[in-house]
């Protein structure tokens, strides 16, 4: 890992300027797949400090549309960059798709092609609630399998990524960073890159670790599992994994803002 421990973050960046926290969800805000009381308190503390939280997740649009109504966040980007759901307002399609019905048919055909080589792939239960991408379970797939799946998708003109829970067939080059840049430009046009912290834990968060876009990026400790396959590494890594690592970061941000 080409990252520094979180304890060194304040030495290199002024956390007092942080205005937006853009964070992955699964494996970053969750602990063993669930939200914890400490996580909810951390999100509430950020809101009380007037720090905007934007969730940037691979989860489906249908799932995310409900989530933003319950958490103290300004909105959530779903499907690895496909759609933005503000906490109050109309969803915004971030990927240009001329014909959504035909798009879904093309994704289904791409998945059918993958099944010819990997017949045991399992479509995710939430796939029916997706708009821009197509997902199947990552469980049981080796690194070699994932590399082959990426290659097959590229041959068909599709992008491919995976997280701790799902594999995604997606429009190329739809990703979290591009979507977040769109949302920041629309919702926070006065915020410079040094006022945004990006947070993640897995390969589908890699674009959020691109220091040419987001110099202040943090991986929770479980990102170390993927250190050997990432091109972009987070600038800093927490001591703790999953939501405990996120709460560790929140404590550092709030402490820096104390008078």
Automatic annotation (TrEMBL):
SUPFAM superfamilies assigned to the protein according to its UniProt record, in alphabetical order: HAD-like
InterPro entries referenced in this protein's UniProt entry, alphabetically: HAD-like_sf, HAD-SF_hydro_IIB, HAD_sf
Keyword Hydrolase applies: yes
Record-linked Pfam families: Hydrolase_3
Gene Ontology MF, one: hydrolase activity
Keywords: Hydrolase
PANTHER family the UniProt entry points to: HAD SUPERFAMILY HYDROLASE-LIKE, TYPE 3, PHOSPHOSERINE PHOSPHATASE
Stated name of the protein: HAD-IIB family hydrolase
Species of the source: Laspinema palackyanum D2a
Taxonomic lineage from the root: Bacteria, Bacillati, Cyanobacteriota, Cyanophyceae, Oscillatoriophycideae
